[in-house]
């Protein structure tokens, strides 16, 4: 029996029961309990065997299911080799940042041999979301779906499907992802591409040693199924299609949308979608394909395709091979990706209204770019011997030794600077094809955050850049909020004409959105969730390179508009931390 060095069992249970008792007075939904054990598990894929970190020995991990407004406790035991945190992607956690999960932002990693219990407060979310590790690249194999059903007495805004199925995309590496990350960060060069993509943990028919384990979804003729699609790929957007079957998108990121009937979808890492499909073709086997979409110049991605089989039940002769889709966009099909993304609209019904903020009080303009940091003696593997970096407004985010939330809540100085700028240091032609000079490419490394007043109405325009010929689509994710994407376009943002195109009637309300290559996107939200909230590109390599920042939303004037008190135990950070003695072994100082 393993011993976990956190707190005694009796102390843990007393705190746990007290929190539960208090919570039952605060919420009307049910309370759910889960136990996650992080440990290395052996898998054989692509003709080779490796050990990978998992939850409960499964890849993907267990599905959490609850109803709108419920509360979920997840007790995480770390039996792995390195520190890990978990994030509940798309769940706002009202006033509860202590359990949001990004390492060195709201907590430090759960170290091997210890445990930590997350409290997850569901509020307005309804539909499909997911959970995943939020420490380094451990998300590759530590992730799973989070299904939130309608509350009692309510229903879907569409006919109840006959069945449902989680469809989860992920990356598979033959080598250990943490070793690959360590090598990449030490060299300062490009990251290694995955060896395959997977659908529900299996690569599918188009990879070696894989067709015996291809995922199969059994369906009955005439029935309609709700596909809960999650993209947990590391660094690649994906097209998805089912041969000869139309898809109807009815939800995205835990909110409903006006139905979109389409033959394919494009989904970025961090996005989730609810999709209806009716089994009304001839009895047979039909390929479900997940194919990468890439619009960058580097062309450094895994050019392969995951497959699964949409398999009808019944008496018929098994085909020699499944039917292949007559159309799925190619790897570089920018037009098809853009056509799909621009169709999203909120449902904006009486039961599911929208409330788009109109009177903006805080306006920001944030550039997204790939750049470089100087290396001594040009000793790194990036361009000109420099280190590849990424940033927002020319700042590459640096993880502090004590998480930002603790430092802010306890007023511990020296771990962050509240000076993240509202605009970039220089204005220029952001989409030019000649942005290679040092004044464009060199970024600065710092832990700079943006302070927001409680209830501020925030508008952010994100501008993609082509610095170092590195423009590409960026899926940006904001913790702690759902926000409205009120506009997007190609080229440089024009602050006179482009706002005239904003959709203030039924814009999509999401937690992750793509900023198009060499283009812009504008979001709005009300800063009514006090706490410390991470914002980052959901390509893991860009996040590792520094394409991140933090928003600190100040408390309001009452207890009900202030951050909830911290739990009695959090994983240890450093000697200056309220909760621990030694600095985390994964915290690297430069």
From TrEMBL:
Signal sequence coordinates: 1-25
Cofactor: Cu cation
Top EC group: oxidoreductase
GO CC aspect terms: apoplast
A Pfam match: Cu-oxidase_3
Top-rank taxon, per record: Eukaryota
InterPro entries: Cu-oxidase-like_N (IPR011707), Cu-oxidase_2nd (IPR001117), Cu-oxidase_C (IPR011706), Cu-oxidase_fam (IPR045087), Cu_oxidase_CS (IPR033138), Cu_oxidase_Cu_BS (IPR002355), Cupredoxin (IPR008972), CuRO_1_LCC (IPR034288)
E.C. number(s) listed in UniProt: 1.10.3.2
Subcellular location: Secreted, Extracellular space, Apoplast
Keywords associated with the record: Apoplast, Copper, Glycoprotein, Lignin degradation, Metal-binding, Oxidoreductase, Repeat, Secreted, Signal
PANTHER family: LACCASE, MULTI-COPPER OXIDASE
Name under which the protein is recorded: Laccase
Lineage, opening ranks: Eukaryota, Viridiplantae, Streptophyta, Embryophyta, Tracheophyta
